[in-house]
Amino acid sequence: MDWGALHTILGGVNKHSTSIGKIWLTVLFIFRIMILVVAAERVWGDEQDDFICNTLQPGCKNVCYDHFFPISHIRLWALQLIFVSTPALLVAMHVAYRRHEKKRQFRKGDQKCEYKDIEEIRRQRFHIDGSLWWTYTSSIFFRLVFEAVFMYAFYFMYDGFRMPRLMKCSAWPCPNIVDCFVSRPTEKTVFTIFMIAVSSICILLNVAELCYLLAKFFLRRSKKAGNQKQHPNHENKEETKQNEMNELISDSCQNTVIGFTS
Amino acid sequence: MSWGFLRDLLSGVNKYSTGIGRIWVAVVFLFRLLVYIAAAENIWKYEHDEFECNIKQPGCENVCFDHFFPISHIRLWALQLIVVSAPSLLVVFHVAYRENREKHHNQKLYRSPGERDGGLLCTYLISLILKTGFEIIFLVLFYKLYNGFKVPRLVKCDVRPCPNTVDCYISKPTEKMIFLCFLVATSCLCIVLNLSELSYLIFKYSLKCYLKKHIKKHQ
């Protein structure tokens, strides 16, 4: 179980995403997860071993390290990536639910079902409309929120995005103010800025996708309203037919229920 | 043999689960297993090396570490993941038993071997109860072993051969505490999911039974 498993899960969602969503997923996997695993983890690998304080007092180094790094950058990034990927699962679950419903309809032999076999249902790509639109939009919204929260947490915890070379520590049991030196501060700053930049790009992509979905939604609504105005009679006839069918269905349901209870 | 085995096992169970069961599997994968492997394991990697006592007495550090950490947080976490996922095997075994039985008798004995009715429903409910029980046991164990879910920066140790009370410093206590809180939160979420699934199944099948009896009475 590792990032590869996450890739498999999210890869399934990719089929039903918009083009911007596919770009976002690619950026996530190549520029964030891969960089984290292949490069960033090594840079932070020896962070406590090579964190050196100018004192022989036992315990001072541990305490100072804990004071300046309540949670390591690398762990915060891993958590950020996990939280940011999670909303896509909502979409995956919704798609799986829709597929399940279609399979059930198909098995019942419903005339409305236009699929030839189960395999076609499995392979089918759903359009983002109806309730799936709401699920998809909420997932993008949550992604945005998580990205923003983690970026703010980063900024707040480390007073900006720069890694200083030297930190002055006076936490007990350090006897006085002690100089502590961070290992590889420039390399860490470079990677931090890189990860923040890619996070910002992901935020922009999410905002663009959200705007695109909203624009599509309003366009579709105005088209429907426009169509209704042009063909009111046709729409009314369809509506009356539908109403009649609904009445027939509700009548037969009532009869069935009465049959059960009598 | 690695965590991939657990992942395959849980994916197999997913097929026979309810919607809430699938959410439980997703929570275990993403928020427990993946966080454990991607983040938590590395925090505790050098815990013994970085555990430092203010003394030069040989053996004192070893003895103090052993006294305060009879079993490391991370090992307990791994055990919890394995034990909590194990009851799902009962369901998989029962379905396999049903399929075997059908093959042995060469006829269709069940509407579908994976359908949750009769014996399989009981097995499923038992697995839910066991999962919840194990979660609670491990949370209580964590609480009792470490006096709460806090990881202190400093512990005072006076076990032999330490000559007096000695100050010992734990490495990365804040980070460890953050991840422990995360573990407790996800465990509680899993307990809530299991209890909801249990109530949902009991309610659904009692209603089904009641309706069936009702129909039989009127026929």
TrEMBL record, chain A:
Q: Where do the TM regions start and end? A: 23-40, 77-97, 132-158, 191-215
Give the GO cellular component terms, alphabetically.
connexin complex
Example of a GO biological process term: cell-cell signaling
According to its record, how does it sit in the membrane? Multi-pass membrane protein
User: Can you say where in the cell this protein is located?
Assistant: Cell junction, Gap junction; Cell membrane
Oligomeric form and interacting partners:
A connexon is composed of a hexamer of connexins.
Protein family: Belongs to the connexin family.
- What's the protein name? Gap junction protein
Q: Which organism is it from?
A: Geococcyx californianus
From TrEMBL, chain B:
- Asked if the Swiss-Prot or TrEMBL record annotates the protein with the keyword Transmembrane, the reply is yes
Which residue spans traverse the membrane? 21-39, 77-97, 118-143, 177-203
Q: Which InterPro entries match?
A: Connexin, Connexin_CCC, Connexin_CS, Connexin_N, Connexin_N_sf
Question: Where is this protein chiefly located?
Answer: other
Q: Where in the cell is it found?
A: Cell junction, Gap junction; Cell membrane
Q: Which UniProt keywords apply?
A: Cell junction, Cell membrane, Gap junction, Membrane, Transmembrane, Transmembrane helix
Q: Which GO terms describe its molecular function?
A: gap junction channel activity
Residues forming the Connexin N-terminal domain are 42-75
Superkingdom in the source lineage: Eukaryota
Q: Respond yes or no to whether keyword Transmembrane is given for this record.
A: yes
**Record's PROSITE patterns?**
CONNEXINS_2 (PS00408)
Q: Where is the Connexin cysteine-rich domain?
A: 134-201
State the annotated membrane topology for this chain. Answer: Multi-pass membrane protein
Task performed by this protein: One gap junction consists of a cluster of closely packed pairs of transmembrane channels, the connexons, through which materials of low MW diffuse from one cell to a neighboring cell.
Assembly notes: A connexon is composed of a hexamer of connexins.
Q: What's the name of the protein?
A: Gap junction protein
Q: Which organism is it from?
A: Geococcyx californianus (Greater roadrunner)
Q: Which gene encodes it?
A: Gjb7
